[in-house]
Write a structure and sequence with these properties.
Blueprint lengths: L1 E5 L4 E4 L4 E8 L3 E7 L4 E7 L8 H6 L5 H14 L7 E7 L12 H15 L4 E6 L5 E6 L5 E5 L2 E4 L1
Parallel strand pairs: 1-3, 6-7
Antiparallel strand pairs: 2-5, 3-8, 4-5, 4-6, 8-9, 9-10
Helix pairs in contact: 2-3
Length: 159
């Protein structure tokens, strides 16, 4: 198995069955995991903020940093690899409240809602989520079978 690491504000799409897409340390950030089980096309994006209008220049340079600018681009790349809505499912992870004890900014919750808004525009919605709380999550997504493993500290589980 080869590992492809996705950093903050990055995404990857793959139809290489021996590949694992992985992103680390999701705090308030959200990972959107999209898989076409028929075409075996996988996409994973690490979204940091909900809306690109807060920093249009950053959105131009690194569109994946924002839900509204990066997620539609990743979906288009998946279509180019043969993904179609009929075989697709979506899972979400992250969106925690970290370093924000009074939930003043609530970036995690705002990220989750922004991601869902973008997905709804494409007639997609999550079939599973591991979101919220106050833990940092790492996500591993296996292209061959679409399995999604999440870990935090010494614990690990699947969604």
């Amino acid at each position: 198995m080869s590992m492809k690491n996705i950093g903050i504000g990055e995404w990857a799409v793959s139809n290489t069955v021996d590949e694992v897409l992985k992103t680390y340390a999701l705090g308030s950030c959200v990972a959107v995991i999209i898989y076409d089980s028929k075409a075996k096309v996988a996409g994973l994006i690490h979204v940091a903020l909900p809306e690109s209008r807060v920093d249009p220049e950053r959105a131009r340079i690194q569109p994946g940093y924002f839900a509204d600018s990066g997620l539609p681009l990743m979906i288009e790349e998946m279509k180019k690899l043969g993904a179609s809505r009929s075989g697709v499912w979506v899972k979400l992870a992250g969106g925690a409240s970290v370093m924000d004890p009074g939930n003043f900014f609530d970036i995690g919750k705002r990220n989750i809602l922004a991601v869902k808004r973008v997905l709804w525009k494409s007639s997609l919605g999550p079939i599973a989520e591991d979101t919220g709380g106050s833990i940092s999550r790492t996500v591993s997504f296996t292209v061959a079978d679409g399995s999604v493993a999440i870990s935090s500290g010494q614990k690990s589980w699947n969604i």
